[in-house]
Amino acid sequence: MSLDELYREVIMDHYRSPRHWGRLTEATDSVHLHNPLCGDDITLDLMIEDGRIKEVGFEGKGCSISQASASLMAESIAGKSTAEAVRLLKRFRNMMKGAPAGDDEVTAEAAAEAGADAEAEADAEDLGDLEALSGVVKFPVRIKCAVLPWEALRKAIAPELNIADDF
Q1: Is the pTM of this model over 0.90?
Q2: Which of 17, 24, 27, 110 could form a disulfide with 57 if both were Cys (CB 3.0 to 4.6 A apart)?
């Protein structure tokens, strides 16, 4: 099985069986976004306590890329601190811009200074299954589909960042 086939399988698995599907009844943050160009729609709910994302839920409709991206993102950020989620968001943004996975303005040293532990730093270094979406960069019109859930996350936890204008 080629890497592209494996990535396609991961995307379709998350599209068909999304993780963290459903709205949270006690969300502390909720963001709804719609991409008028392709019709993708997402509502992201977060329950954040003491700077940590305790629960994630989402509902939406749209293409396999947008829905798989939401599922992969939710799985990746659940249980993480908001600082860890912001680092992951930046790494994902860089991947969608075609930058190498390790090319991030948040260095391990800066993460350590911010109080992140070694495990969190290792998590930030490896995008894991999120790398399945790396092939989207070959299709610029689909990048916004993959980024939509991440833009919802940004609006919820780091409104000062602006990743949507990057694409």
Answers
A1: no
A2: 24
